[in-house]
Design goal:
By secondary structure, the chain is mainly α. The chain has a domain of 98 residues. The chain has seven helices and four strands. Helix 3 runs antiparallel to helix 6 and helix 4 runs antiparallel to helix 5.
Length: 160
């Protein structure tokens, strides 16, 4: 239990008075004849507070040109082959013999290798995706995406 009141040694010297409480609390008496200059109080164990700013996360945006390139490359066929979309359409219609050809067309479109005859070609789908990625980078450098960032909420999620 905490002690309340003045200690006996101070009561013996000053009695129960304002001065006794001032001495107990460490205050100077208001009636002292020889006031001493106050010393600068030394503070030990100072807690340093560091300012840490909260990181603001940028809203998720959709890069429009690369998405268009990825979707568009699915509809672009290799030079003399059908596009992967046409092959998928035939397989879904029930042409079961078209499934291996569809996989070969996908490989030819994106990788450039045709497993049917073992030849290499320019991968047209990869060229389309690469072109749209390059266009996206150029539009970003020109600052077109800053315009989209200032639009109202549904449109500010889109980037070129």
């Amino acid at each position: 239990m905490a002690r309340k009141g003045l200690p006996k040694s101070i009561i013996k010297k000053y009695g129960i008075s304002k001065k006794a409480w001032a001495v107990f609390r460490g205050q100077k008496s208001s009636k002292s004849s020889n006031p001493r200059p106050k010393k600068a109080r030394k503070v030990k164990n100072v807690v340093r507070r560091r300012y840490s700013r909260k990181r603001k996360r940028r809203a998720r945006t959709i890069p429009l040109l690369p998405v268009i390139g990825a979707v568009g490359s699915f509809f672009v066929g290799a030079s003399d082959r059908t596009s992967p979309a046409e092959g998928l359409k035939r397989v879904l219609q029930g042409d079961t013999g078209m499934a291996p050809h569809m996989m070969a067309d996908i490989m030819c479109t994106y990788v450039g290798y045709d497993p049917r005859d073992g030849s290499w070609r320019i991968p047209s789908g990869t060229v389309v995706i690469g072109g749209t990625l390059l266009a996206h980078k150029i539009m970003n450098m020109l600052g077109a995406n800053r315009v989209f960032a200032n639009l109202p909420p549904p449109l500010n999620k889109v980037r070129l």
